[in-house]
Structure formats: C-alpha cells, structure tokens
Write a structure and sequence with these properties.
globular, alpha+beta, 8 helices, about 325 residues, T-fold, 14 strands, single chain, eight-stranded antiparallel β-sheet
C-alpha cells in the first residue's frame, strides 16, 4: 500500500480567474497536495509580479510607466521573444503593443473612452512591435506613450511555468488548467488519455464546461481557446469584441467566434489562438493549413447567423473523443 500511486487534485485563484490541477502522487510520502498548492500559489504570485498589468509594481506596469530603473526578468524576456515571433509569423495580427487601444476600448485596466476615428488614429501611432526592442534586458520604445498588453499570451505561459514545476518534481502524469488554457502530460488513472472540453461560443456562456461543443483526448500537448463570446460590449445595436485589430485599431468584425489551438506548449497555443481571432476565419484557415506545428478547431457563425459551423485542421480528427467510447468523461 505504501508504494501505491494515486491522483490528487487542488485548485485556486490567479490572474482574475481560477486554476485546476490534477496530478499523480507517487507514494504516500511524496509532497502533499496542500504543500504543492502553497508552492504553486507562490509561483503564480511571483509570475504576476512580472507580467500582470493589474499590479502597479509589476515589471510590465513599470515598463508601461517608463520606469527607467526597471529591468526585465526571465518571465518577461520569454514572453517578449515569443510575442515577437508570433507578431512576425502572423504579419502583425498578434501585437502586444495594442495595449493603448485595448484600454481605450474598455478591455484593459484603463478607463473606457468614447471612441471615434480621430482617437483611434491617434492611438495607432503607439502600436507596432517593430517600434520596440529588448536591449540588455531593458525595453526600448520609439514612443514613450507605448504600453504593452500581454494578456493574450501570459496566461498560456503561466500554464507552462506551473507545468515545469511538476516536471521538475519528476511527476509524469498531470493536467494543469488556468482560465481555460491547459497543458497535459502522460495520462490520467488507468492510463486513460486526458479528456477536455471546448465550450460552445454563444453569448454569456460564462461557466466553462457547462455547454460543450466538443470533447478532446489529449496527452503531452497544450490547448488554448480564444473567443469573442465572453468579453464584449454592445452599443447602438453593434457588438464590439475584445479582439482588437492592431492594424485598424477597431474590434474585429468576423464570423469567427472561437479558435482553439493545440501546440507543444501553452504560450504558443495562447498566442496563436488570439492571432486567429484577429485574422478572421478565412485567413486563419490558410494560416493553420500551412503550419505543421499547430492543430486548430474553429467555430464560426453561419451566413444567416442562426447556427454554428466548424472547421478543423487535417490531423484534428484523431484528437476528438467519440461518444461511443466506453470511458467516462
């Protein structure tokens, strides 16, 4: 009995959302869930001190305030380099300098403004990753008013950070989920693959897992979903999504409702899910079809806007859990 392994779970709050973790505990004398939760909470708190724009003394907040003494830490450097790669790959669809626009439209820590074409055009001058550089771990801006928003990539990276914690403890079977973004390794009990759901993208579907579009079976990969059905506002009968196009300065208007990306790590999945939402349905289809390192599941509205339709990448079918499978979800 002393050598038996069992699966433990614990959860908590971070980054304005929840996290849930399941892992295999090797033997009764291995680290307890209570201690591991404390260590994970401490790790995530330290992570926020780097990348949370809602914490005034975080590194990114100090960068946004043009604090001349701030130096980037490893968390920020990794996020910046990945963001630059995705910015280049997506031809600017993904851009962490979109912060001033995100705030002005009311989707960030700043106060929502009354937007018009003149204000949008003025804020566009502060957008573009080609206008910033990381030199000796210090961010250099062409324009001091530029502000960074890493919400579309940092949460995915936090999943990778926590996953690395479990790997360093030589835990081979776990599932880490933070705010809907997740990373799986190995299997769950009885060597069954991890099964996770993708939510239906209808308005006000605020409870993850309550209304599922599809169930996937995963192992040794990461998943992130970006959508316009939870963060939006309506004005004069027009719905404005939180996906801001860095090129136009306006919320994206497209039939694409959600993009689920599967990649090796969650920082990659998170960033490209956002890029797809900005690119829109047709460009995303072409973009994903040309990538061997990404799988995607896109949900979009019909032309009459009365039903959902889906598109999936060529190898995605083998990840879908079939209802006739005898294993419980």
């Amino acid at each position: 009995m002393l050598g038996c392994n069992k699966y433990e779970t614990f959860d908590g709050f971070t980054q304005g959302t929840t996290y849930h973790i399941i892992y295999e505990r090797k033997g009764l004398f291995s680290t307890s869930p209570v201690k591991m939760k404390g260590e994970v909470d401490s790790l995530l708190a330290h992570f926020d001190l780097s990348l949370s724009a809602y914490i005034p003394n975080s590194i990114i907040s100090r960068i946004n305030r043009n604090d001349s003494l701030v130096i980037s830490d490893p968390y920020f450097v990794i996020v910046f380099k990945k963001a630059l790669d995705v910015f280049q790959d997506s031809e600017g669809a993904f851009d962490i300098t979109v912060g001033p626009l995100v705030n002005a439209w009311g989707f960030g820590p700043g106060r929502k403004k009354d937007m018009d074409s003149l204000l949008v055009d003025s804020l566009l001058h502060y957008v573009g990753m080609n206008k910033i550089k990381l030199i000796d771990n210090k961010l250099v801006k062409e324009i001091s008013e530029m502000k960074l928003d890493v919400n579309a990539i940092a949460q995915g990276y936090s999943v990778d950070v926590v996953s690395k914690y479990f790997e360093e403890k030589r835990i081979n079977n776990f599932l880490v989920e933070i705010g809907g973004e997740l990373r799986s390794k190995g299997t769950k009990k009885n060597e069954v693959l991890w099964k996770v759901g993708v939510d239906k993208p209808f308005d006000n579907n605020y409870i993850p897992g309550q209304n599922l579009q599809i169930i996937l079976k995963l192992s040794d990969c990461s998943l992130a979903t970006s959508g316009n059905y939870r963060k939006y506002f309506e004005k004069d009968g027009v719905k404005y999504s939180h996906s801001i196009d860095p090129k136009t300065g306006y919320p994206v208007m497209d039939r694409l409702l959600s993009a689920t990306i599967i990649a090796k790590d969650c920082i990659t999945a998170d960033a490209y899910a956002t890029a797809c939402m900005v690119m829109g349905l047709e460009k995303s289809k072409v973009f994903i079809s040309e990538r061997d390192d990404l799988e995607a599941y896109l949900i979009y509205s019909s032309e009459s806007n009365d039903s959902f339709k889906t598109w999936q990448s060529k190898n995605f079918e083998e990840l879908i859990w079939k209802e006739e499978n005898t294993q419980d979800f």
